[in-house]
Fold these 4 entries.
Entry 1:
Amino acid sequence: MSPRLTLEPVDNIPSDSQVCHYDELSEDAKEELPLLTVSDGVSVDGSIADGFHNCDLVKSTDYYEVSVV
């Protein structure tokens, strides 16, 4: 089963969060990012999900909390 990835916008950034910036993501993850920011729980390839595993938050134009299930 493919992992489901959700990105939720956040306003408060906890000081102990691991933040990944857009330019640090793999090319595959960068391509999926626009879809992930407007959809709830998108099934993605495992290699894309792996690119987000070390991130609590992703910084693009806004900050997004990462959830991989």
Note: The chain has two helices and five strands.
Entry 2:
Amino acid sequence: MKTTLKNQYAFTNQILIAVVSAVFGYNLYQAIVHPENSNLILSIILVAMTYMVTEKYGTGKSKDN
């Protein structure tokens, strides 16, 4: 019987990336059009945190020996 392992965090990572992209895009728009209403620094921090989480739980190379 052949079994394959799927990354259990793959779907969650995709949703997280989509939400963070939407928030960052909206705040980038606000920074361009209405600079007084933007939270660009918070969005950049959120993008950095998302990068770290996807690197930790992402679909990387598995160590098979």
Note: The chain has a mean pLDDT of 80.
Entry 3:
Amino acid sequence: MTVSVTGSICAIELGWLSGEYCYWSDYNTVVSCLSENDANGAKLVSKNDVNKTRITETTSRLKEQGVSVLEAKYVPGASATIVCIGDSSKISSTAGSDWIVVG
């Protein structure tokens, strides 16, 4: 596992997550080191093709609501997923119409 500090590389993607430290688990997925503490999170799955700006907006709103964003996967032109933990009503209301909440 390679751990990166927000701002060191790929600042946009690392900024999607909660916590100070994170890593790339594969080519498309960035994971917060906080995720090791709680594996039971809700997953938001994009309904349509979303871009990095849309993911940034969604993760920012989630974090503003006190939700911890643990993982984000983005496959350009295909799909995106966000894994988070927190108040389920805040997650659902913040997700908006571009996302389906699973779990």
Note: DSSP finds three helices and seven strands in the chain.
Entry 4:
Amino acid sequence: MFASTNPKQPFYVANQVEVSATSQKVLTYLYQPLIGALGVGLYLTLVNEYDSVPFNSDYRTLYQLQEQTNSNLKNLFDSLHYLEATGLVKTFVGNNPALGDVIIFRLQPIPTAAEFFKTFLLSSLLLERVGEVAYERLVKEFTPRRFMGLKNAHEVTSAFFDVFRLNEQAAINPPEQVTQAVKKVEAGNKRVLKVGKTDIRIDWEYLRMQLEAYHVDGGEVVNKRRDISQIIQFYQLSEIEFAQLAVKTLSPGEDKLDIKAIQKLANSEYGTSRTRNSVRRQIKSQEEDYVLPTALNKTDKEILLEVENKATVAYLYDLKSRLGGMVTGDEKRVTFVLRDKYGFTDPLINLIVYACLSEYPTLSMKYAETTANDWLREKTLTPVKALARIRERQKGKQRRPYFYNKKKSTTSDGVDWDKKAQQQAQEKTQHTKMSHEEMDEIFNNFEKKE
């Protein structure tokens, strides 16, 4: 990937692209979740930067592009790489005798919604980014509407030969010029979107044999080669893995491939695994000896020992039992999702449960995911660091946690919360209480001003 650190480096746009209202809708609704708002802004800015005859004095610089998009060079090139990977921009570096290296952008027309959804790399990525509900809403948004009143209507349209006269021979056997024109026009209009580089080589004969073993028509591999290639490239699948996915979508006696069903299943099984593997790699990179530091107090040591030695659901039940609450099905589901979908270890899941229930009466997916994301961002992926993060957050909030004995005064980290609450109430009373003399003086002053 190319990136420049020189804000004075010149660039120019090599071609002109028309952006219609329909194209802009595709760019905003379908591409923006993939390339971001800055990516959309950068593309539209480059569209307006086209100059058919760029002279040396007319060259723009990256600094000007930064000002127009209100971004720094790093963010600018990150967005450019998104545009390149999704097939909207091609970037070249040329040499000019007067200016030296010049960046050249060749813009690609924004595809139609149908072309976008046929490109499974883009469509699958959109599904992964926005989720199934939003994805189906976008599909509905771009599905052509049909007027239902035509269902029972009788067509009275004139036929071609009712209006025009044509030589019988030409009508039966079109002239050579006509048949050649068809071939030329078709060749020019067959656009297949190219999205980034593809490095995986597919053994199509081997894949055909794998599918035929499950009674799938061998011609399906030929007819749907482009769609199959996109799914394999996007999810980094082998021929066997694709065949196993395809088999799961087949109904008894069916010998055709349902590409949409395969795409959804691939996103469910392999899209999720990408997130899980990423989390596990981050956790592994921070693994440490779980020797408890001497600086920890007795309570924290007991918590760490408990979260490391208890299964997630058992820990959840024990914790809710101490609070006097009950464990719901949704709460148990949160622990399963954290482990199976996101790849967190049992000690970290138990601490996420502990962190959430320290602030809220129930364990919800929303707060669990927020806590998990916070720990990933702050690189606190060991039990000791995670507990330290919980304590840091509790001190910052200065609030009484849900973990306390209502009958006895409870201290946490040296703070007596009951005593502190009484002191605050006294201070508030002292601050708001006013003597009769003070009130008389205020009213007397008010009368004087009147």
Note: The longest strand covers residues 89-96.
